[in-house]
Design a protein that fits this description.
9 strands; alpha+beta; three-stranded antiparallel sheet; 214 residues
């Protein structure tokens, strides 16, 4: 796995913050998600069907066993998907990294394959904070940045959709990161619209300090 700092090696980019999600919250969110209730209901119904077939004596017939066992294993797919999500959450947490620089946001993660994404400040239009139940319990939060494009999703040639939002989630210092991201986004956007070198000494608009700020 590539370290995020390797992506900015030999550049003038400066790392302002880096971190990773809190492990306990990430695991709890993987366990207690909407799929839990679906898996419980689905599994209960399927086990009841298997129990009914067993009690009826049909399972003593070889042809019934050869049909019902593969069918139920396939029918229990929502349960397997839920259990796989729990079993793989540790590796996904281990491979997740966040980094904030003076040029933009970086996020890495993945399980079978790894993704490395960067969004420059000029692409970000909104920044928000989100806290779920476990976030509030453990004092962490999410910093969500929204891309400046009108559509929140794009569709690639292979049919997959990619969300334009970039989330730094389950981090203890989410307020600090939110303020940092918000300030940088505002400063860079303002300087893009009205560069520092062209800004007069007296300006009734924004007076940002992005140049030489950090």
């Amino acid at each position: 796995m590539i370290d995020l700092k390797d992506l900015i090696k030999n550049t003038e980019e400066t790392v302002l913050w880096e971190g990773r999600p809190k492990k306990s919250v990430t695991i709890l969110e993987a366990i207690f998600n909407p799929m839990l209730f679906i898996a419980i209901i689905w599994g209960t119904i399927d086990l009841a069907v298997i129990g009914g077939v067993t009690l009826s004596g049909a399972m003593q017939q070889r042809s019934t066993v050869l049909f019902i066992v593969p069918f139920m294993l396939l029918h229990l797919m929502p349960v397997w998907i839920y259990l796989f999500g729990i079993l793989s959450v540790f590796l996904r947490w281990k491979n997740t990294r966040f980094m904030v620089t003076d040029r933009g946001l970086y996020v890495s993660g993945g399980f079978f394959s790894f993704d490395y994404e960067m969004k420059p400040w000029t692409d970000i239009s909104h920044v928000s904070i989100h806290q779920g139940i476990f976030d509030r319990m453990f004092g962490v939060g999410d910093v969500v940045s929204t891309c400046a494009h009108m559509n929140t999703q794009i569709r690639t040639g292979n049919g997959h959709s990619h969300d334009h939002n970039l989330k730094i989630y389950n981090i203890p210092d989410f307020l600090k990161v939110f303020q940092m991201v918000n300030d940088l986004q505002r400063d860079v956007f303002s300087d893009t619209m009205y560069p520092n070198d062209l800004r007069p000494d007296t300006n009734s608009g924004y007076r940002t300090k992005y140049q030489g700020r950090f």
